Amino acid sequence: MSEYHIRLLQEEDWDEVVALEERAYAASGLSEGREALRSRHRASPSTCFVLEDADGFGGYLLALPYPLFRCPDLSLAEEGAVQESNRGSNLHAHDLVIAERGRGGDLARRLLRHLEETGRAAGYRTLSMVAVHRSQVLWSRLGYRARPEIGLPASYGAEAVYMAKPLEPAATDPAPTSGPRAEVG
Description:
alpha+beta; seven-stranded mixed sheet; 7 strands
């Protein structure tokens, strides 16, 4: 397998992002469409990433600040940039898809680890996501806790599960150990 690297999502990536998103979600009715996807990126371009290697596009991750225990509705585009009041608390990993040729390895984990590092550096306290296609088992192994009591927009379907995890300070952070900790449980 080629060596992949992660970079910020750019304008020329949208055809690949939309095509990959449609292949991943159209059959289950979870595809959002180009404008909704682009609105997530416009809300927070510094937290949306592409995975690529010498063969090209390998996947993407769209994330944006969102209040803990809430998530974007798949049927609606975001309205403008994320409000400043939502920054610094919770970072929501809205959509992560790995291209078919790269599946089966640790590429999703690498993208999430990159998001965690980005979130920590920006001062976020928690990460959240909505697990679809029964992926909560995978995400729970990465430290996300299922929160089935959190209501989700109908656009996610009946089997989707909200998940969250605290972002512990990086080992080099001089933050006091007795300070406030993000509560997701």
